[in-house]
Design a protein that fits this description.
This protein has about 400 residues and is α/β, with parallel strands linked by helices. Helix content is about 35%, strand content about 25%. The strands form three sheets. The chain has a seven-stranded mixed sheet, with helices on both faces. A seven-stranded mixed sheet has the order 14-15-13-12-16-17-18. Strands 1-2-3-9 form a four-stranded antiparallel sheet, covered by helices on one side. The chain binds ligand JHZ and S-adenosyl-L-homocysteine. The site of ligand JHZ has 22 residues, from α10 and α11.
């Protein structure tokens, strides 16, 4: 049975930036629910994936040094641990992960044509399509079974988990591994990261819910790792139900214990967490109003999908945040949908005459603080709402 956890009315898609301030905006409700059977938290009645992931999709994973290093380390670690004869990545974006593998034995799936073109040009055979039963049959027929199937921040974006997971199973070799990275729901709760709730994020996996789903569709969780990127990320190691790979019960039981203690599988505890998050949304607007009343300049740092969610969940606009800066060329000179905050190119002069930067990319706090040491030393301040509202200054 599905039980509602939290709902938002009339939220635009977070990566649908406006080229024209008065351009058309599509609004959708965002309803997040809890499944009492699988314990999965997910979006109900989500938007058509073609609208979420169009051919001019703007999110480019390679914009952050932290993520470039994370996926390089990840590729090296998987190569060492599994020594695969071939690799498939689902949701390859700009090639941040596959670039570390041999193009002759590596294939990719990426529905956003602008990004599929990048990796095809890098000589990686990239299927410019959504992962599906048909595509998995085609891949199996053309390339045989696969030793390592990797997917980061993508399985949690796919609607229809039964088709998604049974299609993965179809392509896995007998002792092949399916490695999935996604934001950890446990960390989302601990950090009160309400801005992780948006339409692209279809599922919010805990280890408990993910393991339940895998078992339902003939797959097995055999290990788990945890990383700090994107505000807390799980790396799940999965094999076929009939695989002879050893299961790391110690590790899995440890995570199960942590999740149960925090209440990720308890509807009542989750509801309490949602109340804290709702209060945090109110606090964000209040502090920005207070700072603005002191005639200070506030800009957004990183026009992340999360930043756009915060702006709309907390009812912000360009009277509270003058503009946001971002390094991604495709986001620049556009406006955030609904909140209509202009997005400008980031350059060396961006923080001159700025008093406060609201951290849209709070998940890269360390990388940004290191980069903006001069701003901090000259009295500049950062505002972050994670895990609760605070000012960062020297
Ligand atoms: P970042 C996206 O979320 C969307 P977003 C998606 N749904 C998802 O799950 C995750 O990624 C993986 C900029 N930036 O990575 C770059 C600077 O300008 O937190 C990005 O636009 N300067 C697929 O969008 C944004 O901030 C910097 O120094 O929330 C960060 O976006 C740095 C470090 C980043 O993901
Ligand atoms: N793996 C990268 C990119 C994450 S962005 C990283 O972790 O940084 C999510 C990517 O998944 C987008 O490039 C999007 O186009 C892709 N995607 C979304 N739905 C998909 C689907 N059904 N099948 C395959 N890829 C999908």
């Amino acid at each position: 049975m599905l039980k509602n956890l939290i709902s938002f009315k009339e939220i635009p898609l977070s990566n649908s930036l406006l080229s024209d301030k008065d351009g058309d905006i599509n609004y959708y409700d965002l309803n997040i629910s809890f499944d009492t059977e699988t314990k999965l938290v997910s979006v109900v009645d989500n938007v058509n994936p073609e609208k979420l992931f169009p051919d001019d999709y703007v999110y480019d994973s390679s914009q952050s040094k932290t993520m470039v290093k994370h996926f390089k380390d990840c590729a090296e670690s998987l190569q060492k641990r599994f020594n695969p004869s071939n690799v498939l990545e689902i949701g390859s974006n700009s090639g941040i992960f596959i670039r570390h593998f041999n193009p002759d034995t590596t294939i990719a799936v990426e529905p956003c044509s602008n990004f599929a073109k990048i990796t095809n040009d890098m000589e990686y055979k990239t299927y410019d399509d959504f992962w599906s039963k048909d595509l998995s049959e085609l891949i199996r027929q053309k390339h045989g079974t696969i030793d390592v199937i990797f997917s980061a921040n993508t399985i949690s974006h796919i609607q229809g988990l039964e088709e998604c997971l049974t299609s993965v199973k179809r392509c896995l070799s007998k002792d092949g591994v399916f490695v999935v990275e996604c934001p950890s729901f446990l960390e989302l709760l601990k950090e009160n990261a309400f801005d992780q709730f948006y339409h692209e994020h279809q599922s919010y996996f805990s280890m408990i819910s993910f393991r339940n789903l895998l078992e339902k569709y003939g797959l097995k969780l055999f290990d788990i790792e945890n990383y700090s990127v994107h505000g807390g990320t799980y790396r799940f190691f999965v094999c076929r139900g009939d695989s002879s790979i050893d299961i790391n019960y110690n590790n899995i039981n440890k995570w199960e214990e942590k999740e149960k203690q925090f209440g990720v599988d308890s509807y009542e505890k989750l509801r309490k967490r949602m109340s804290i998050m709702k209060q945090n949304m109110i606090d964000v607007r209040s502090i920005l109003k207070k700072i603005k009343s002191e005639n200070k300049t506030v800009i957004g740092y990183g026009a992340s999908a999360k930043f756009i969610q915060v702006s709309n969940m907390c009812n912000l606009d360009n009277t509270l945040i003058s503009y946001a800066v971002d390094t991604t060329p495709d986001k620049q000179n556009k406006y955030t949908p609904k909140s209509k905050i202009p997005i400008k190119k980031y350059d060396d002069e961006s923080l001159k005459n700025v008093d406060y930067c609201f951290l849209g990319a709070w998940n890269f706090l360390n990388e940004i603080i290191e980069k903006e040491n001069k701003f901090l030393r000259s009295g500049g301040k950062f505002i972050t709402h994670i895990p609760k509202l605070r000012i960062i200054e020297l």
